[in-house]
Amino acid sequence: MHTIIEPFRIKSVEPIYFTSHAERLEILKEAHYNPFLIRARDVIIDLLTDSGTSAMSSEQWAGVMRGDESYAGSDSFFRFEKIVNEITGMPYIIPTHQGRASEKILFSTVGATGKYVLSNTLFDTTRANVEFAGAQGVDLRCAESKDPDTIAPFKGNMDTAALQAFIDEHGAEQVSMVIITVTNNSGGGQPVSMANIGAVKAICKSYNIPLFIDACRFAENAYFIKLREPGYGTKSILQIAHELFSYADGCTMSAKKDAFANIGGFLAMRDGQLAEKCRNLLIITEGFLTYGGLAGRDLEAVAIGLREVMNEDYLKYRVRSIQYIGEKLDAFGIPYVKPTGGHAIYLDAGRFMDHIPVHHYPGQALCCALYLEGGIRGVEIGSVMFGKYAADGSLIAPPIELVRLAIPRRVYTQSHIDYVAEVIAAVYQKRHGFGGYRITYEPPMLRHFTARFEPLQ
């Protein structure tokens, strides 16, 4: 079998600035040991997120030039609306400037105060918007997802038995909605099966509970369904996506992921009355109905990107690229969430830095170590991002401590990824030389973005 090559040619480049270990030591100190606070220029390989960091195609840049900047009734909006409707089958399409704006509008509108929002796993901004709306987010992860080493085709699934039990215990009237994230970002980037989505829908329908999809990486999830779920091998990505969305009452999407765009998102739904309420809030917070906080050129880029992402040559390359990193790590015995997902490698920081207790934030320690060793920026998904405090002030840690290295789409080549694997291996070999951290400042919500740390002696 031949090497799977990038299904594109590079047409424009930007420089990478190289720093020394001594420089990075000072940079990290000035950033209060939080990679979010490091200037991008001082990062060699930036794997903080795959959100808004994609390289746009020549067709998307051509669309940027065609963008209709009319305040109302822009042609760019109608092209955007058409492709979103084609993929989701939903009649009410509401543009927003990014995914968290969609979440803010949705959860502020559905009447979530004092209720629960149930999920396979809520990501950070989704959980924050759920809590900001006065609801409580509850993750109902499938059993196989709780062991990083378990090899299973759909570790992003929701636990349907737990869903039924939760409804039985708390009552359907206390559940504002169920939302399934595809792929399951906080759960290691793992896909969700069509059978699981259908089973969740059946439970929701029997209790009249709305089911929404967090669709940031719908195309990657659809490709995993094509590869791994019986009956889908001959179907197109569009056909699979259309069936996936057919089970949902609505969806949110950050177009900064699977649409290759640098900004943008949308809400889509089937309920006209709910859509009207959301549109009213959109006008107050985002902009008019046909631009929603976006320039016409951004709407064009999103619309084109949504078509491009369903190309199977691209998806084959994308999934194989992540597998390639996993194979490199396997050679060094480095612990990560298996099998690899579609957009990132998730290092098991709890085992990687097994000498650092959770209340000293092993994931944050690993992030800092990767930056010091090789200028790589990743993000902690563990006790910093999702930790809570008990009444006595002690840390309530999440089930697993991870560091996510998210791969921007169409940005880095194989040699960049080889470098990343080499840096991870070097850190692993000297891991016991790195210590933990304590928090010196944190905001009340989404603390990982702006928290400050200091190393423990």
Question: Overview of this structure, please?
Answer:
The protein is an alpha/beta fold and 457 residues long. It has two domains: 21-50 and 311-455, Aspartate Aminotransferase, domain 1 (Alpha-Beta Complex), CATH 3.90.1150; 58-308, Aspartate Aminotransferase, domain 2. It contains 17 helices and 16 strands. The chain has a seven-stranded mixed β-sheet, with helices on both faces. It has a three-stranded antiparallel β-sheet with strand order 9-14-11. Strands 1-10 form a two-stranded parallel ribbon. The radius of gyration is 21 Å and the shape is globular.
Name the CATH class of the largest domain.
Alpha Beta
- The CATH topology assignment of the largest domain is Aspartate Aminotransferase, domain 2
Q: Number of domains in the coordinates?
A: 2
Q: Could you name the ranges where pLDDT drops below 50 across 5 or more consecutive residues? A: none
CATH superfamily of the largest domain: Type I PLP-dependent aspartate aminotransferase-like (Major domain)
Q: What value does the Rg take, in angstroms?
A: 21 Å
Structural class: alpha/beta
